């Protein structure tokens, strides 16, 4: 495979910059020979201009044409073979099996959004026919559906080099909505990004969509210019709280503020309730630590906090957690920056008064060592909330609460989370309805048993939550509802039927289920304007 290391702009390649980035093998630290050129200010502007130029023509394509484009991307991703998997593994230290699964997830979510386009519910079509005889005032003919907001800037995530990256969920949702994309490649997987971008470009040419529908730029300091560019109309981001908040502030300060859909920080609490502890505490301990260390803890939904009320069963459970942690081994993280950040998080927690290291799974200066901490209940309630600051890696904290009331108090004041999990028997759930009501206000996904790692890509999934889990709790970055972030409603009043979008025409040529005069129907609309 041939690598160029140049930016993707308007269907071509551009390498005007002189600031070079190198792909570093995660396991060995070895640098790849091909340099990647950071986009210049002119190149960033050119990428945004290319997306803006493509937008009117791409938005005007039928949903079926966009669906075929997404299907073509999926086919090109599936065609990336063993040599591709080997290169991604070299760059990220992720095993081949994990990457093969992630490749399938990436292509399948493209196909899922193609299915959304074909079924048409994303239009949200609503029709209120004219009531010319209504008193005291007639009602005009009103028709609403949704269109793509415009070019979207997407930032690659560090922890999923495929599924949350170049062809990941944000890109898929934006393209499905009719929005061209300017993608900022993550510096931790530069080669992976180029190879996937090549696959998308092949799909662009196969499908005949406008050049500039997809663009990609390299660089560690190009994000600010991208977000501030007038042509960008929305931003998708997965990363740190600090980074996401900075983008939100930049976007809000623009002459035309735009939304930033940022997934940022979550500790994903696991609450172990009494009957579950008594019934299957040993299995919960084993599987919980397995969830903490999967993917070297580099998952947005990794459990960072475990809570239980003091009891003999909880004491036994904590010992089981300790033994399970000691049985783990150090693992290689995706890049040296991630390892440094994880090490800093472990050191920070170790120095918090009332927190002790209960177990560490080995010792290593070059790999992430799994950690289990134990904190006094009082630490949960300090103003600084140190236990709610995410440690991105294979670490978790167990807290032994004094009472059920303390558990309720914490849930009431807890920060927003992507997930909250109850390990519970049916009698636990019946006895903790007040707790559940609080968790519903604080988390985007509420689990009963199981563990939050492993996020299904589906219609019903929510991968979002109240701040600081995300910048906007009304959306999701996984699942088909993700398309909503990049759509806006538009209403046509007294518009000629033949000039309306197909989704709103009287004959309903797309066969959509529409809301017509407050009733859901696929029927042809009897327009009183044409009857006169």
Q: Strand count, sense and closure of the main sheet?
A: 7 strands, mixed
Q: Rg to the nearest angstrom?
A: 25 Å
- Biggest sheet: strand arrangement: 14-15-16-13-12-17-18
Oligomer: single chain
Strand content: 15-25%
Low-pLDDT runs: none
Report the helical percentage.
25-40%
Mean pLDDT: 96
Quickly count the helices: 15
| N-to-C CA distance | 66 Å
Characterise the protein shown here.
There is one protein chain. The chain is about 35% helix and about 20% strand. With about 525 residues, it is of the alpha/beta class. Strand 1 and strand 2 (about 10-15) form a beta hairpin. The longest helix has 24 residues, at about 95-120. The radius of gyration is 25 Å and the shape is globular. The model has no long low-confidence stretch (mean pLDDT about 95).
Briefly, what is this?
The protein has 532 residues and is of the alpha/beta class. It has 15 helices and 21 strands.
Strand-helix topology:
Elements: E1 7-9, E2 12-14, E3 20-24, E4 31-37, H1 41-60, H2 63-78, H3 82-92, H4 96-119, E5 126-128, E6 142-148, E7 152-155, H5 169-177, E8 181-184, H6 190-207, E9 214-217, H7 223-228, E10 234-238, H8 241-253, E11 260-263, E12 270-272, H9 274-293, E13 305-309, H10 312-326, H11 336-350, E14 355-360, E15 371-375, E16 395-401, H12 404-413, E17 417-423, H13 426-431, H14 433-442, E18 443-448, E19 487-493, E20 514-516, E21 519-521, H15 528-531
Parallel strand pairs: 5-20, 7-8, 7-10, 8-9, 10-11, 12-13, 12-17, 13-16, 15-16, 17-18
Antiparallel strand pairs: 1-2, 3-4, 5-6, 6-19, 14-15, 20-21
Helix pairs in contact: 2-4, 2-6, 3-6, 4-5, 9-10, 12-14
């Amino acid at each position: 495979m041939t690598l160029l290391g140049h930016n993707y702009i308007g269907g071509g390649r551009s390498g005007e910059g002189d600031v070079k980035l190198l792909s570093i093998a995660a396991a060995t630290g070895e640098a790849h020979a091909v340099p990647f050129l950071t986009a210049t200010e002119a190149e960033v502007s050119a990428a945004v201009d290319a997306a803006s130029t493509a937008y009117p023509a791409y938005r005007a394509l039928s949903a079926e044409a966009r669906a075929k484009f997404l299907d073509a991307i999926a086919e090109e991703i599936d065609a990336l073979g063993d040599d591709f998997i080997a290169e991604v593994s070299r760059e990220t230290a992720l095993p081949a099996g994990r990457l093969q699964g992630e490749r399938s997830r990436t292509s399948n979510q493209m196909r899922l959004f193609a299915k959304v386009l074909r079924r048409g519910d994303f239009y949200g079509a609503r029709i209120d026919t004219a009531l010319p005889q209504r008193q005291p005032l007639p009602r005009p003919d009103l028709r609403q559906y949704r269109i793509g907001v415009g070019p979207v800037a997407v930032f690659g995530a560090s922890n999923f080099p495929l599924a949350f990256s170049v062809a990941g969920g944000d890109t898929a949702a934006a393209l499905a909505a009719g929005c061209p994309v300017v993608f900022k490649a993550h510096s931790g997987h530069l080669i992976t990004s180029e190879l996937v971008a090549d696959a998308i470009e092949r799909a662009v040419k196969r499908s005949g969509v406008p050049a500039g529908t997809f663009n990609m730029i390299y660089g560690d300091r190009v994000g600010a210019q991208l977000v501030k560019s007038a042509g960008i109309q929305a931003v998708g981001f997965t990363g740190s709280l600090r980074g996401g908040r900075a983008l939100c502030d930049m976007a809000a300060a623009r002459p035309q503020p735009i939304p930033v859909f940022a997934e940022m920080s979550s500790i994903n609490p696991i609450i172990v309730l009494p009957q579950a502890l008594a019934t299957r505490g040993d299995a919960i301990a084993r599987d919980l630590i397995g969830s903490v260390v999967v993917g070297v803890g580099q998952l947005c939904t990794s459990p960072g906090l475990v809570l239980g009320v003091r009891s003999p069963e909880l004491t036994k459970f904590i010992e089981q957690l300790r033994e399970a942690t000691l049985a783990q081994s150090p693992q290689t993280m995706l890049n040296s920056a991630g390892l440094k950040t994880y090490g800093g998080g472990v050191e920070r927690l170790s120095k918090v008064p009332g927190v002790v290291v209960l177990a560490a799974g080995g010792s290593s200066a070059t790999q992430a060592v799994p950690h289990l901490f134990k904190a006094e209940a009082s630490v949960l309630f300090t103003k600084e909330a140190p236990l709610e600051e995410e440690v991105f890696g294979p670490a978790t904290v167990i807290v032994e609460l004094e009472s059920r009331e303390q558990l309720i108090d914490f849930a009431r004041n807890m920060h927003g989370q992507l997930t909250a999990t109850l390990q519970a028997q049916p009698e636990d759930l019946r006895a903790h309805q007040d707790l559940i009501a609080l968790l519903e206000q604080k988390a985007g996904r509420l689990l009963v048993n199981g563990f939050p790692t492993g996020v299904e890509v589906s219609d019903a999934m929510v991968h979002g939550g109240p701040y600081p889990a995300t910048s906007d709790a009304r959306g999701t970055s996984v699942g088909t509802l993700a398309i909503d972030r990049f759509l806006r409603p538009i209403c046509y009043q007294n518009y000629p039927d033949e000039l309306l979008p197909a989704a709103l025409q009287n004959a309903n040529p797309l066969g959509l289920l529409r809301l017509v005069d407050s009733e859901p129907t696929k029927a042809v609309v009897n327009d009183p304007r044409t009857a006169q």
